[in-house]
Amino acid sequence: MSKKNFSGGLDSLLGEAKRMQDKPTPKRRPLNSSQEGLKGTETRATFILKEEYIEVIKAKAYWERINIKDIVNDIFEAYVNGLDPKDTERALKEYQKSKERRG
To answer: What is the pLDDT of residue 2?
Structure first.
């Protein structure tokens, strides 16, 4: 077994960290990283749901051999299609106005 040489001291260890800092930083992520790697009009979102709903959705996805996102999209589609179109249009207009005011 050979002996380790620590004669370089702490400076030799810190020198490696310094050289790593000098490397160029990787390119930044796209402005909307929630859509990175997705297709079409998909985006990522986080929701807080009751555990019992999540359990049923996961079981149904497993049973039907489909993605959880497909079930969630079906649920949202059924909800949105059940809304009054006039109310939805007004809500969307007001929401867009509020986004514009916030910048």
So the answer is: 60
Percent of the chain residues past pLDDT 90, beyond the cut: 56
How far is C-alpha 25 from the chain's CA centre? 22
- 53 three-class SS: helix
Task: Note the pLDDT tens digit of each residue in 5-46.
Answer: 656 665 655 555 555 555 565 555 555 788 888 888 889 999
What whole-number distance in Å separates Cα of residue 92 and Cα of residue 74? 20
Q: Quote the CA–CA distance of 73 and 71 in Å, as a whole number.
A: 5
- CB atoms inside a 10 Å sphere around CB 72: 15
Euclidean distance between CA atoms 29 and 34, whole angstroms? 10
CA distance 11 to 92: 60
End-to-end alpha carbon distance in the chain: 66
| Residue labelled with tokens 């807080």 | 48
